[in-house]
Write a structure and sequence with these properties.
By secondary structure, the chain is an alpha+beta fold. Helices cover 26% and strands 32% of the residues.
Length: 458
């Protein structure tokens, strides 16, 4: 779960910082930079899986386009990220070894620079990397969203700070060091930073480096949900498909079949909730076709007809995918979902909002529960969706509404636009700006946000 994100030098972000709740809605008009926030999260996730060159090649645009452009002749040479996280209390590696973490609140820092290599060819290198625990004293995020007296998600550990990854000099050489337990542990591995093209975090592949491995696994589970109707409608090959649905919807049928076998009650709940969202449906089922060796989803309609998933509407497929994620005990991590209202009847926006809320971890629902951590980040330009979200009960205890806009800044004599994402809170049904903002910034934002909301009547 991402609890704070800091970005500078990446796309439209400059000295950007935002706290994130378990459920976040980023609202704003097109071109405000909402998607850039998700792009930053996607890049960090990929950097935990692969080297820098591969991670940058997966992003929208070329590598140079990902660095902040101040004007046509001036581009940033570095980009910096910091992300604070809440992690699950235990971690298991691919070999089945499991351990409990001493710390579940961690801060990860990364700086990437572009500069010539020893042959004069400009490349991308790691310049700084760090992973440190967040002290429990004055941990405002934990106190707000988990609760100051809820010890379930904070192991009893002293505030003697350690580090798990650090950048520093040994003699005249700068190195990144990764430790097993912390700064008092003798077992470590170091890497010369001069031409480092992969993060040290990405190399932590087992519980030998438990906290770095846990942070890596959490970041690898940051997914941009791009549900593709073509993938959602496909049957799943019984032996080749993953038993967890992919971010594009691939493997929906095999995931549903696993849920049906492992938890018939959960599968029945999916069917009942889909019927409430799509009234013409009387039953959903998924079966193995022995002739094709595929899992096939079918829907029975109230008029007696039966259809396979190949002819489901896009809206029905998207709702079924979200319900599958909700009831799948294996699903965890961060879901970034762009414009979830697409393909959904406006009359169903309230139900969609509740479904998305249920996809995130709400600590107040069951303070002592030991469940996988889930977080949902939505970006939208739909005032209807914002209106439904802000009416939810006790929203500020588990959710956050952010408003994105472009502002102009002068840097070294040049004007350039960067993204500002402002928290908006609710009090007795009304919206107001965070009190730590300057009065001038509040008034400008309030007027823009009022204009944005008035484009639809709730």
């Amino acid at each position: 779960m991402i609890t704070k994100l800091e970005i500078s030098g990446f796309k439209s972000f400059s000295n950007f910082s935002v706290d994130l709740a378990p459920f976040v809605v980023v609202a704003g008009l097109n071109g405000a930079g909402k998607s850039n926030l998700f792009d930053a999260i996607s890049l960090l996730s990929d950097l935990a899986k692969m080297n820098i060159r591969e991670a940058f090649s997966k992003q929208r645009g070329s590598a140079i386009e990902l660095f902040t452009h101040y004007d046509k002749d001036q581009t940033a040479t570095e980009m910096e990220f910091a992300v604070e996280m809440l992690l699950d209390k235990t971690i298991r590696d691919a070999w089945g070894s499991e351990t409990k973490l001493d710390y579940t609140r961690l801060r990860y820092e990364l700086k990437i620079e572009r500069r010539p290599d020893k042959h004069g060819i400009e490349r991308l290198f790691v310049k700084h990397e760090a992973l440190v625990p967040i002290p429990s004293t004055n941990d405002q995020w934990y106190n707000t969203y988990v609760g100051p007296y809820n010890k379930c998600w904070r192991p009893n550990k002293s505030n003697n700070l350690e580090f798990f990854i650090a950048t520093g000099f040994r003699g005249n050489k700068e190195e990144i060091v990764i430790l097993q337990k912390g700064m008092n542990d003798d077992t470590h591995r170091e890497q010369n930073i001069e031409y480092l093209e992969s993060t040290m975090l990405s190399g932590a592949s087992d519980i030998q480096y438990a906290h770095a491995f846990a942070a890596r696994e959490a970041m690898r589970n940051w997914n941009l949900l791009h549900l593709n109707p073509e993938e959602l409608s496909k049957p799943s090959a019984s032996l080749q498909s993953s038993d967890q649905m992919g971010p594009d919807g691939a493997g929906l049928a095999s995931t549903l079949y696993r849920i049906k076998q492992e938890s018939p009650v959960a599968f029945n709940d999916i069917s009942i909730e889909l019927m409430s969202l799509v009234p013409d449906i009387s039953m959903i089922d998924v079966k193995l076709d022995p002739n094709e060796d595929n899992y096939i989803i079918s829907l029975d309609m109230e008029d007696g007809r039966t259809f396979s998933s190949k002819v489901f509407s896009e809206g029905t497929l998207r709702m079924l995918a979200l319900l599958t994620l909700k009831h799948d005990e294996k699903h965890q991590g961060v879901l970034c979902f762009e414009e979830p209202e697409n393909g959904v009847n406006p009359r169903r926006i309230a139900q969609l909002s509740s479904l998305l809320r249920d996809l995130s971890t709400i600590f107040q629902d069951d303070p002592d529960a030991d469940f996988p951590l889930r977080q949902v980040l939505i970006n939208t330009h739909s005032p209807l969706l914002v209106g439904e979200v802000k009416k939810m009960k006790n929203f500020d205890q588990w959710g956050m509404l952010l408003f994105a806009r472009q502002v102009t800044q002068v840097k070294k004599g040049h004007k350039w636009k960067h993204t500002l994402i402002t928290p908006v809170s609710s009090e007795q049904g009304n919206l107001f700006w965070e009190r730590n903002m300057t009065q001038g910034l509040q008034s400008v934002n309030r007027e823009e946000f009022r204009h944005y909301l008035e484009t639809a009547k709730f």
